[in-house]
Amino acid sequence: MTKLERQIKLRQLAIIAEIYKSGNIRSAAANLGLTAPAVSKACSEVEDIVGDRLFDRTRSGMIPRNICNVIVRSSDVINSELRKLSSEIEDKLFNTPHSLNIGYQAPSLVRHAMRAAGALRNKFPNLRLRILQFDRGILLEGIATDKFDIAIVDLYQINKYPGLLSASLIKEPCYAVSPSSVKSINEVLRLWDEYRMMNWILPVAGFSLRDRFEALIASKNLYLPSNIIEVNQASNIRPLLEKCNAITLATREILMNEGVRNLPPAQNDLSEELIFESGAVWREYSPNIDMIREYCDIMEIDESSSH
């Protein structure tokens, strides 16, 4: 270990960085809440450790020398790593039996998930609760690595993820929505030559709703829409929808939350419809399984029926 590693302190690096930014001892001292002699002493101590002057002291202020530039850059790196370490430690502390990390993606269940989270917090007033929105892929990867305890997501092909338990909470049809109408997928497919030529606003490729929509189109030996506008989130697209006179996909729950009541009736042949299934996903052997079960109880999830 070198003399620099043994003797230099984080407090001294912070003082050097402040002198560098402020340009003089007095301003640095005021910003740090220290006396000017204390700041000057710290600067001299670092100069003794590195064996060189850090600043040229002039009437106009402290002019940093090359060695000072190197130290300040290194200090920034050290502080960045310390912030990262602090964040990682906080994440580790957060993942305790007295905390719950909830992720959500499925828009149809956001209100249900939030109500359940609130009820859980009322039951456990000291519970550390974190609720974050991410796309489905990030949430499922986070569940597998315990970054999330439970996620509310679309359950499309969820059985392809080993080690995860899931429970369905809602199954609902999707509709084709334009600024002036709401149509069933069945009706749109019957008039596909007409609807295909419209502007379509769809999730980006890789989102399960997009994948299922394209699979349904392909199963009918039909061509995909000619004009697709891709988005990575479903909220706040109404201005785009109206301006482009476009058509998009929305679930029954989303439409009802927006006040749409006269929805087309469900079709008898579900193969002609786009059914959106949402629910909860969690890891079977999660270290936080007790709190996950508490949340599942409030969400009225029967663990024995999970798959």
Which key features would you list for this structure?
13 helices, two-stranded antiparallel sheet, 11 strands, alpha/beta
User: Radius of gyration, rounded?
Assistant: 29 Å
Instruction: Bin the helical content.
Output: 40-55%
Distance between the termini: 55 Å
Order of helices and strands: HHHHEEHEHEHEEEHHEHEHEHEH
The total count of strands amounts to: 11
Uncertain stretches of 5 or more adjacent residues: none
Structural class comes to alpha/beta
User: Averaged pLDDT, please?
Assistant: 82
| Main beta-sheet annotation | 9 strands, mixed
How many helices does DSSP assign? 13
Mass-distribution shape: elongated
Content of β-strand: 15-25%
List the helices and strands and how they pair.
Elements: H1 3-7, H2 10-22, H3 25-32, H4 36-50, E1 55-58, E2 61-64, H5 66-94, E3 99-104, H6 110-123, E4 128-133, H7 136-144, E5 150-154, E6 164-177, E7 182-184, H8 185-190, H9 192-195, E8 199-203, H10 208-219, E9 227-231, H11 238-243, E10 247-251, H12 252-257, E11 275-283, H13 289-298
Parallel strand pairs: 3-4, 3-5, 8-9, 8-10
Antiparallel strand pairs: 1-2, 5-11, 6-7, 6-10, 6-11
Helix pairs in contact: 2-3, 2-4, 2-5, 3-4
